[in-house]
Design brief:
The chain is mainly alpha-helical. It contains 21 helices and no strands.
Length: about 400
């Protein structure tokens, strides 16, 4: 089933970027040199590989220098140096080194993997994509390559393809939290809240790193709130330490469950720490209108709009506050502006959906970038502009599946 994008896509709080979560630098080193280890002097190749994977970079550099001194092992050096440079976050230098690497057997796959990573980090997705496709075509069980493919598909807005890759990884490695997290992020973007909550809850059950637990739990709770499952959302947030986002979700749940006094206390606490927190301001303003305190509500809604003039939810609430005050002209003015913003957001949603159906259409992505700029969504605009440039580099503007 084709994922359909939310009208609010891009406005909701983003958790850890999907590519950053899915990918681990130099994991490819584990593929290396199986045929060589038996014969390599003192096992230096395997030692260098292990040092790179473990992050012992000074040790790895010394071992690689020693390998370069022997004609028997010098052929391993370009790939190992390339991997070391990737670990040092120097992809441009890594790519130059990798161009000298041997392409044969297992080492060929390892070289393509490392080259693909370097190209990805340099933003050259059009060159990275065929490398990973080649690896997966030869070995569909190469899950690291499939993760890279999923990240590239995500970056260029081909969400159905990204979902298919993540689903295949889930089947192969059901104990890995990362593809469940990735699917949760994608489904949250596309308003598939039940699926998002399920995948994010599964990710939590699979023992993610401790530094990830809170934000995965907040993502799951956000999906549950959107799905009107307030008690489950509160339960999901029980283990989450203080954060403004978590407490704003708690406050929403409490209001929905009739515990307004407790919600107000949470909102006061949030806004003392984060005076411009969007969700807290919106909820406080809605409660103020319900209490007949429209002037205070107007201040809250206006603060949101000062940060995002196209937040049509805040604009609508502002119009309702003016209506409650009897200011019909101002209500009409705000509703007109809301419809203009809503039109842009709906256009963004429609184009995003079209981009999924036409994953090679560079012109469409340029149009998406322009709409995002009109909406003040700078990061999204840059993402779509990069995607358009990459597709143009592929000789794009054609329809079809990226996996063909």
């Amino acid at each position: 089933m084709t994922a359909q994008p939310s009208e609010e896509r891009g406005r909701q709080v983003r958790i850890t970027p999907l590519p950053a979560l899915l990918l681990t630098t130099c994991g490819v080193a584990l593929l290396l040199w199986q045929p060589w280890r038996r014969d390599a002097p003192e096992g230096l190749i395997s030692e260098a590989t292990a040092a790179i994977d473990a992050g012992r970079l000074d040790e790895a550099a010394e071992l690689i220098d020693r390998l370069d001194e022997s004609a028997e092992t010098a052929g391993a050096v370009p790939l190992l140096r390339g991997l070391l440079l990737l670990k040092q976050d120097r992809p441009r230098e890594a790519l130059r080194e990798l161009e000298q690497a041997q392409i044969d057997g297992t080492s060929g796959t390892a070289t393509w993997m490392a080259q693909g990573e370097a190209l990805y980090r340099l933003g050259r997705l059009s060159e990275a994509l065929p490398l990973f496709q080649r690896i997966v075509a030869a070995d569909g069980g190469n899950l690291e390559a499939r993760r890279w493919l999923g990240a590239i598909y995500y970056d260029i807005g081909a969400m159905d393809s990204a979902i298919l890759e993540m689903q295949s990884i889930v089947r192969e490695t059901p104990e890995d939290y990362r593809p469940h997290y990735a699917l949760g992020v994608i489904y949250l973007d596309f308003e598939r809240y039940g699926l998002a909550a399920d995948h994010l809850a599964t990710a939590l059950d699979l023992n993610p790193p401790s530094q990830m637990e809170d934000e995965i739990a907040v993502g799951a709770a956000r999906a549950l709130v959107k799905d009107h499952r307030y008690e489950e959302a509160l339960s999901q947030l029980e283990s989450v330490s203080f954060s403004a986002d978590a407490d704003a979700l708690r406050a929403n749940c409490l209001v929905a469950l009739g515990q307004v006094r407790e919600a107000r206390a949470l909102l006061r606490d949030i806004l003392e720490r984060r005076p411009d927190h969007r969700d807290a301001l919106l909820l406080r303003g809605e409660l103020a209108v319900a209490d007949g305190r429209e002037e205070g509500a107007i201040d809250d809604f206006q603060r949101i709009l000062d940060s995002d003039a196209h937040d049509f939810e805040a604009r609508y609430e502002l119009a309702q506050a003016f209506a409650a005050l009897g200011d019909v002209e101002r209500q009409k003015s705000e509703l007109k502006r809301m419809e203009e913003s809503r039109g842009l957001v709906l256009r963004l949603a429609r184009l995003s959906s079209q981009a999924i159906e036409e994953p090679y259409n560079a012109g469409l992505r340029t149009e998406l970038a322009n709409v995002c700029r009109e909406l003040g969504k700078t990061e999204l605009a840059e993402m779509w502009a990069r995607a358009a440039a990459e597709l143009q580099a592929m000789g794009a503007d054609r329809e079809g599946s990226l996996s063909e």
